[in-house]
Amino acid sequence: MLQALLYIPSLLHEKLENIIRNEEDMELVMPYIVAPTSLEEGENYHVLVEGVKVATTNSLIGAFKLLMASFYVFNIAYPKNLQATLSFLQILFLGINDNSKPNIKAVKLVAEISK
Asked: What is the pTM of this model?
């Protein structure tokens, strides 16, 4: 499951490095995950928003859940360079299909996987 989750941005022609970073970036406004280089479970993963650590977990999957929650809680729009990946996670994993215009790449990937 974890490897599949990490491969999603690549399938949608986006970069995992825009979601997961190895160090804090105080200039970055959007929510992102700070992870150890190993990406092993049991390590500490932090979710930052506007350079402020808002949550910590010891699971990368948990960090993705917290990341998605951060976009909703802080009412932050998905950045263009991650829109397809985050829309995909929203639709397939969280089951949230809000009234906003869905990302076409994400919808097509969900349809392919659902076959």
From this structure: 0.82
